[in-house]
Write a structure and sequence with these properties.
The complex is a heterodimer of chains A (97) and B (422). With 97 residues, chain A is an alpha/beta fold. Chain A has helices spanning 44-58, 78-87; strands at 3-7, 33-38, 63-68, 90-94. Chain A is 26% helix and 23% strand. Classes of the chains: A alpha/beta (97), B alpha/beta (422).
């Protein structure tokens, strides 16, 4: 097959910030503080309600911190992220549907 | 995770690819995912609650050794890779499409000499970074934009317009990450104003949003290809549009200033009268509005009625919709003595929609999204399409005929204008 040389149209992705993102492992959720970022998609609030109840009853989670974005199209505000980072051991975020 | 906390992403399985790409795009490596079956959003409440025990288990399983580094990309803007592809045009097009680099139509091969000729259209350095485009956050350099412009069939003189459009697309208020990944049929439309409209032969008149003009067609297509090949908004990949729309192949048209009774969009947006300006819009579609009424108040009523539909992102969140007035409709409004600001205010008033046209969870979403702005919303409340009249953009384009176009805009997306540089 005859070929020709072209310039690749796809751009490179971002460089991974190695060393800056080592996530902690959690052996257990017992006694931990868990955050939930509700992306405000249909049914996510109901799912978060059920998860919170599940964590409290079966997993002995100490506290659940809930935040809700006002729209799925908008990222969580920096002060919200700072608050979650300060208070929580684990953050669960919804994306897409 | 960047702040030293464990993180887990929850999504339906149809969105797992998007979640992984968002994670890599933010240089977070592979964030752990806990998935539920799609469709999720339409489940009844009791079915949602039943998902929780299993989902909690899945989340817990991700916690030991969460996340692995991504190996994709070295990030720094660098010269494009040279690769061998089939020389036959059809075979090359099929190859590009299979790689996720095409739009399903034949393409011009971006050979070194063709790209070099394209780069003659700008004074900007080949390696200059225009911006990183979400969700993949790939680096759109002048070279990368030129490669995609070549593929779309652009001429060298078109490149500065495309570079301005790409720069505009990187501005936060457009919310490109959402436009590129939403289930809505969002596209990034380009609207061109100023002297460059005539200089480059844009079509601002009949069929300006349709086929037949090389500049409109290739530039609209080129922007689509850049968004896809730098940003990763590939159909059936990270672009999760349920249906998409024909304008996602590309939509570019020009303001018909010679037929407009009002100052051009570039003046309205604070640019010099002789500036050439590209505006990008997160358009959800184009909706024809045909009316032969002879009173401007009747025309505004017709337009306002037509803009109302309850499945609209604009009403749900308070949007930034566009109304593209045909010259005949614009002239009728000008005859009534209305300037553009008056038209905006009258259209906002006439397009208020009864909240009760939203049903069930849609009505609850409307109430939640606009409570801070409007207070409690009962079913008889007339809800404006935008928070302020200034959020509605009015431009004049099109040919002879008693038509205008309503262009609804994706949620929270605000159009962005950038001057064309050399």
């Amino acid at each position: 097959m005859e070929t020709l040389e072209i310039l690749c149209p796809a751009a490179r992705g971002p460089k991974l910030a190695r060393g800056s993102i080592a996530p902690p492992s959690l052996a257990s959720l017992a006694g931990r503080v868990v955050g939930i970022i509700d992306n405000s998609k249909p049914n996510f609030t109901q799912l978060a309600d059920a998860l919170e109840a599940e964590w409290r009853s079966r997993w002995a989670v100490a506290k659940v911190v809930r935040v809700r974005k006002h729209s799925p199209a908008v990222g969580a505000e920096p002060e919200v992220l700072a608050r979650l980072a300060a208070e929580c051991d684990l953050v669960v975020a919804g994306i897409g549907d | 995770m960047q702040r030293g906390r464990a993180a887990v992403v929850v999504c339906s399985d149809a969105f797992a690819g998007l979640a992984r790409a968002q994670s890599r795009g933010h240089a977070l490596g592979e964030l752990p995912l806990a998935q539920v079956a799609h469709p999720f959003g339409s489940l009844r409440p009791e079915a949602v609650a039943e998902l929780a025990p299993d989902l909690a288990d899945r989340i817990a399983r991700t916690l030991n050794g969460t996340g692995t580094p991504s190996t994709e990309g070295d990030g720094a803007p660098s010269a494009a890779e040279r690769i061998q592809v089939p020389a036959d045009p059809l075979a090359m097009g099929l190859d590009f499409t299979a790689r996720g680099w095409g739009d399903g139509l034949p393409l011009i091969a971006p050979t070194e000499d063709r790209v070099e000729r394209m780069l003659q259209g700008t004074r900007r350095a080949r390696s200059e970074l225009i911006g990183c485009l979400p969700p993949r956050n790939g680096a759109a350099t002048v070279e990368q934009v030129a490669i995609n412009a070549t593929m779309a069939g652009c001429l060298p003189g078109h490149l500065p317009v495309l570079l301005a459009a790409v720069e505009a697309a990187t501005r936060p208020s457009l919310r490109l990450a959402s436009l590129q990944t939403t289930t809505n049929p969002s596209t990034v439309a380009m609207v061109v104003s100023g002297p460059i409209v005539a200089d480059l032969g844009f079509n601002a008149s009949g069929n300006c949003m349709g086929p037949g003009n090389w500049t409109n067609a290739t530039l609209g297509r080129a922007l689509r290809l850049v968004l896809q090949n730098a940003g990763g908004g590939v159909a059936d990949g990270l672009d999760r549009a349920t249906h998409g729309q024909p304008a996602k192949f590309g939509l570019c048209f020009a303001e018909h200033q010679a037929a407009s009774p009002w100052p051009s969009l570039n003046i309205e947006r604070g640019f010099a009268p002789d500036a050439s300006v590209v505006t990008v819009v997160g358009a959800l579609g184009t909706w024809n509005m045909h009316s032969t009424v002879s009173d401007a108040r009747d025309l505004v009523a017709v337009i306002g009625d037509t803009m109302q539909y309850p499945a609209s992102s604009d009403y749900l969140h308070g949007g930034c919709p566009w109304v593209v007035l045909g010259p005949e409709h614009a002239a009728l409004m000008a005859t009534a003595g209305w300037d553009r600001a008056t038209v905006r205010e009258r259209i906002r008033e006439a397009s208020r929609m009864r909240a009760g046209r939203h049903r069930g969870s849609d009505l609850e979403r409307l109430r939640s999204a606009r409570r801070a702005e409007l207070g409690e919303i009962d079913e008889d409340r007339l809800v404006p399409i935008s928070v302020a009249a200034e959020d509605i953009t009015i431009v004049v384009a099109g040919g002879p005929g008693a038509h205008s176009v309503f262009m609804p805009v994706s949620a929270h997306s605000r159009s962005v204008s950038v001057a064309v540089a050399g």
